[in-house]
Amino acid sequence: RAQLAEMVRRFGHNTWIIAKRPTDWTLDLPGFETSVLRGTDCCSLPDCFENLAGERSADLAALYAACERNQALRDLARLPLMAAAMVRHMLALSGHALRVPDLCEACITACLGEWDGLPRDGVSLSLLDQRSILQAVACEMQQARTWVINKDSLRRLIEEHRSSVGKIRAALWVDSLASEGGILGPVAEGSSDLAFYSPSIQSYLAARQ
């Protein structure tokens, strides 16, 4: 926050737009207005898919049909990154049948894949580690019949799931999962309660556990 405030002060004549995911800390810079981006409305999904597919938009018939049949998939596709992941997966099928679990997997890979093995703030959290932890978290939440987990509960769950991690590293992993991949994040700005960005992703990960 201090670095951003200093940049704004130094270049005050610029137009500044700061975009971020919901976090458990707030960015209350003076002179800024806060807006929340909600994603694509359902009526605009076909146009969104066509723009992403370009000349190959005719190849998306099965994806359109899947979204029509499946409300959870349709809600997931309203997130632009998830829509892009679905379209990319669909165009790579090369004649194979479209499966909803594969679309969920494509969405998860889109969020986690680019972070695989990259150290962030001294934390190296591999894709395998992330998947293993997220599946255990999702399974725990499904069994408790809840869509929300507190950061402290998540830290304890990581410690139980990986006994060799330790409290400090577990806390760092919680921050990394909640701020980098985007699959798990605060339910509201400034909240310490976390949720999967889509109930369908929570259910899918729990089923994979």
Briefly say what this structure is:
The chain contains 10 helices and 5 strands. The strands form 2 sheets. A 3-stranded antiparallel beta sheet has the order 3-5-4. A two-stranded antiparallel ribbon has the order 1-2. The protein is globular.
Task: Draw up the topology in text.
Layout (H helix, E strand, L loop, with lengths): L1 H9 L34 H9 L7 H9 L1 H7 L2 H12 L8 H13 L6 E2 L2 E2 L2 H17 L5 E2 H11 L5 H15 L2 E3 L6 E4 L2 H10 L1
Antiparallel strand pairs: 1-2, 3-5, 4-5
Give an account of the 3D structure.
The protein has 209 residues and is mainly alpha-helical. The protein is built from 10 helices and 5 strands; from the N terminus they run H-H-H-H-H-H-E-E-H-E-H-H-E-E-H. The chain has helices at 2-10, 45-53, 61-69, 71-77, 80-91, 100-112, 127-143, 151-161, 167-181, 199-208, and strands at residues 119-120, 123-124, 149-150, 184-186, 193-196. Strands 3-5-4 form a 3-stranded antiparallel β-sheet. A hairpin with a 6-residue loop joins strand 4 and strand 5. Helix 8 (151-161) crosses helix 9. The model is unreliable at 115-119 (pLDDT under 50).
